[in-house]
Amino acid sequence: MKKTAQDYVYNSVVSDSNDVNEFIIEFLSGETSEGSPVKVTRNFEELIQFFEEIED
C-alpha cells in the first residue's frame, strides 16, 4: 500500500472533567474545520497512539 503525506487541522475541546488526563482533540482532514473528524482522541494514550500511527 502506498502511503501519502497528510496534513491535519485540529480543534481542541475543553470541558469540565473529574479526570485531569481526559480531554478531546478532533483531527480534521484538509484546511477547514468543517465535516466529520478523521480521528478523535480523549486522553494522552490515544493521542500518542495516533501520532505513532501517522509516523509510520
Q: Gist?
A:
The chain is an alpha+beta fold and 56 residues long. It has one helix at residues 44-55, and strands spanning 8-13, 22-29, 39-43. 2% of the residues are buried.
Separation, N- and C-terminal Cα atoms: 12 Å
Q: Mean pLDDT score, rounded?
A: 76
Low-confidence stretches: none
How much helical structure, as a percent, in the residues?
Answer: 10-25%
What is the element string, with H for helices and E for strands? EEEH
The proportion of residues in beta strands is 25-35%
Count of β-strands:
3
Q: Going across the major beta sheet, what is the strand order?
A: 1-2-3
- The structure class reads alpha+beta
**C-alpha Rg, in Å?**
13 Å
- SS element count, helices: 1
What would the keywords be for this entry?
alpha+beta; 1 helix; three-stranded antiparallel β-sheet; flat; 3 strands; 56 residues; single chain
